[in-house]
Predict the structure of Cadherin domain-containing protein.
Amino acid sequence: MGGLTGWLLLLCLVCSSKANFSPAINQKVFHICEDVPVGSVAFTILASDQDGDTLTYGLTGSNAGFFQVNTGNGQVTVKSPLDREASVTMALGVTVSDGSNTTPETLTLILEDANDNSPVFENPNFDILVAENTAVGTSVFKFTASDRDVADAGVVRYSLVEIIPSQGSEVFEINEVSGELKLKGQLNYNTLSTFYRLQVQARDLGGACSGEKVFQSSRVFSFVTVEDVPDLDPVFVGGPYVGSVEESSPADTSVLRVTALDEDKGINDNILYSIEAASVEGLFKISENDGIISVMSGIDREVTGDKVTLTVKGTESKPNVNGQPATATATVEININDINDEEPKFYKCEGSSCVLETQFTGEVFEHSLGPISIGMTVKDLDKFVQTEITLEGEDKDVFSVEPSTAVSESTVQLLVRQPENLDFEEKQQMILQVIATDKGKPTFQATATVTITIKDTNDNSPTFPQNTYKINVTEHSPVETEVATVTADDPDTMDAGKITYSLLPESILQYFDVESNTGRVYVKNQALLDRELRSLYSATLQARDTDGKPGTTVLEITLTDINDQTPIINRQEYREFVSEGGKLEFPIEATDGDEAGTENSKIQFSIKPSTHSGSFSIDPNTGVLTNSGELDREALNPESNGRIILTVIATDMGTPALSTSVSVIITVEDINDNAPTFKAPSYSFSVKEGEKGKYYGLKPFASSPPTWQDYNISIHSFIQSGASAGFVHAEDLDQTPEFNRISFSIIDGSFGSFIVRTSAEEKGYSGNIMVDPDIELDYESAPKKFTLRVEATDLELEKAQTVVEVNVLDVNDERPEFTSVQVVSVAEDAVTDALVGTFVGQDKDTNHSLVYELESVNCKCSGELEPCSWFTLDPNGDVRVGPADPLDYEECDQAVIKAQVVDLFTEKGENNSVTPGEMVINIGDVNDNTPEFYYSNSVFVVVSESASKGTSVAGVTASDRDSGKNSVIKFDVRKVQFEDRVTNAVTDTRILFEAVTTQQQNIYVGIIQTTEGLDLKLKGKYLVTVTATDTGNLSNTTVLEIFTIDEGFRTELQFRTTVSEVEQSLDEIKRKLSAATGASVDIVSIKDQSSISRNAAQSFMLAYFIFSNGTALTSSEVEKRLSDQEHFPGLYEVGLVNIGSVPVAETKTNPLVYGLLGIVGGLIIVLVILTTSLLCTRRNFRRKLKAANAMKSTTMLNSDNQKGGAVVPGTNKYTMEGANPVLNLNISSALALDMDLNEETSDAEKSSLSSLDHNYDTIMDGNDSDDDKKGAMWDKDVDESSEYNEPLGAALAQLGQNKKSSTAKIDLGINNPMFDTTDL
């Protein structure tokens, strides 16, 4: 017994000292960007401790100086700049200690390249020498540069940044890959630059390890010198070459020098000169070395000519690049200067042949000017010589010679200087001497004789004795009347008797003309000679001789007057007005176009005798017209309308006397000097009862103003159509309507039943006694006799009266009428000719025959009446369904029929009803239309995680054209299928959705809701068949596509603000998230972050980012878009600090607990050993115990520490003392609820194992899909779960597997700070 006690004490002592494991470093290789800034985090040492102890970190080794580590959390920051080019990898020694044990390790750091090196040129020299004839495309140099970076950052590309001069861009190009500099264009030493400066850039393709892509480059200057080659022929300079030399110059006389240069400026070879050809051989020679041309032999200009042309060649002393001599030629012109050594001589030239001559002849007309051709040419063979030409002889002053000075060869002409001395009548021939003298040598002289013959000409013009002739002729003289005869004289004998005459201008010829041979002027047109139109004519009489020389004189012809103008009265007609009894006085004015002041233009006035001429008189000289007695309008014929027409005559005093007349219309205006009078003292008429007066108005008058016939026609038209009792007649003797117009009125006895209408007659006016249109006489109730007193009044209230008796006669005059018609109804499926309703009419007259006529049928369609043909009306008043179109309630729901009832026996008045009868027919609806879905282009999307029972995910709309209960629609979900997005396979599912029917006015809306939570892992779309059914079981179906957003698209957003602050700013947050991602935001939940977490976030949000087409963004895509510099500052302002998993809160554990747990653990181990050695327990019991322990552990969890998201077991991600991430397993929310996580109790307060089993059985009963697993753990050997090192982990994992089919889909990360599995 004592031994057993000792063993127990030893075991207790061993167990009381808790086993402590060394920390483990989990990652030994890290990739780091070489451009991580000093002070920034390069990586974090990932280590774990099975004991969960606080870890301390340190750095060792030669590379420790580059880094600095946070001893508390293992974050390593850069202390000194890193350089991948110095070393691609770095070995860094690290240590991790839990306080008791220290684990050393060497980490391998692989430095990732950042583009931090510029390309470096490797060429030792960049000076290039290129021959100018190097072929285009030849590589003249290769630039080589290297870059120590790798990948694209180490790939070098070459480019020409600048070329000086700029024309070099057309000559050089560089291969961007190889760096070869090639000729793009041809070099030229002479025309292009001989030197180029190139700036060459080497640039990498860019790279970045972190941040934006960086490009590095470097530049060098390269100098290209062009080398000249002998590829050009020499060129003569200073041309064109023109020299001169005098004829007869001595030999070796220098003429000029030619110069040629080598175009190859860099070579400049010597030139050798020679004469290759000459227009005249043997005259000149050239010096071979210096190019001087000189005289070789004697020169005579008159033999060789004025110019000698030489062809000179220059040859380079050395061959060109092709081994051939390089030559060039130039043309040299040498002008031979003349000396005066020849005498002038006269020649007679005809065409191109000339002969020496000393005798010349010529002709000229008397008094003529201009040159005289004598065919003379003077020549001097010397070139630059002047020959003076002069005249000698008796008549030398009459002429001059041209030219006065000649050069070498000139044509000689004589010019007339004094034409007045060339008079055929005085002299017929003149002789001159022409002398040519060399002005350089006056001794050189020649003489020639010229004989000039003078010819006669007509040199005198005709003349008249007088410059002006004044002539008179009577107007309208007969044609051929002689006006005058005028002749001219010409002293030339050749013109005697040959002078001709004409009148100018041409316009005078329509009045007068002249005989061309005699000069007799005569009248040409009698009618046009009108003194009143034109009294004076001026004409020019012209005489011409045989040569057409003119002479002129002026004829002034005056027309004398005759009495040929009739007096003209200033008006076509005179109209004057005078009141009857008034005084009339006004002048008649006239003029006469004959000559003023003569008897021909004097006028006398008179009145032509007529009916009324005796009542008027006129002054014969002044033409003033007056009345000689009182004028009375009534004495005039009424048809004249008060007008008196007189004829006034105006007569001149000429011989014969001429006269004219004018009408004078005098209107005698009426005054009211007569009263109306009736034609009879009394009148008697009769009228039938019920007759009414109808006033249709007067017919349009046929004439304006209207005559009495027009009024009479209008009156009779009125009588034929009106209810007239009779007419009274009255007359006013005044003649104008304003004074004789009469109006009638009933002044007594009418009692409001009669009216009188006034109308004009042929003579006077009539008054039509009519029944008032507003009154209907009734023989039974109204007076049977009326005594009327009628008054006639003109416009100035002159009056007369008469008495009219009217007797009322009895007639049948009642109109039929409708009785009230009730509203009727008819079903829209009524058959043709079905009786709908009946019109009923009545007539107060006893003898009547009523028939019914259809007036209109209008249907109320869409709230407005419009004509239709759905109903017919029988003559007896029956309304029936028409055969034209079937009734349709959905088209029109009401009809209104209007009809007339007609009395066929009506004697007087209208035979139809006053108002039409109206029948309203309501068309009854029948259920004859199926519901119709409205098309929608909406895309329906459901986030599986946020969907629970009752979540609205889609909607449909439909309507039924029927009305009332027939239009009521109910929606049902008949079928649900799922189409997998990956395989496109379609499978049937249970009814996961239901339809909730709502109504918006006449449109029904079906809201599609989930009936349970959806599977988070399904990827694809639900095909939901929705049926719309009305109350008559008529239905229609449609299939909705609802795209699912599975849990793979869930994104966690961390905020530095609290839940309440996030919720207050939720609209702004969602707006900015949508703007950044371009998607709509579906928020699943917003939760608090644990207060003891070292993370800066205070709350986190679970959300999905969904597009309208049913797609969504993954968490990484969301992170990329939200991290954009354009949007993240705005999101940061609303509290967003991180995108990703939520850190699990760490709970500090009291160290005293370790001691207690160690003791308890030791006792448990002892019990396990004893139990194992003494009892043989079945595996089912062991699994039961593990499940019980697992359930016991989970009941101690605090819900405040629950966070979503996976963690890495055994790492130092959360290093708070006591944290045990082993318990951070995904546990169903349903299980969490059953475990009452909000309840913190001790082990003693927990229920027994059997009650725990009962609770677990209850949880499992909620799973309808796995009936064979209800109430029991997964029946699997414990050894098969060897991947879990501890029983509690295995139990919880098995529990999680059994709950995968639970209806709740939200997983919770659970941390239990009160429990340590190592202690177990």
The chain has 13 helices and 86 strands. The two ends are 28 Å apart (CA to CA). The longest strand covers residues 850-861. The chain has a mean pLDDT of 80.
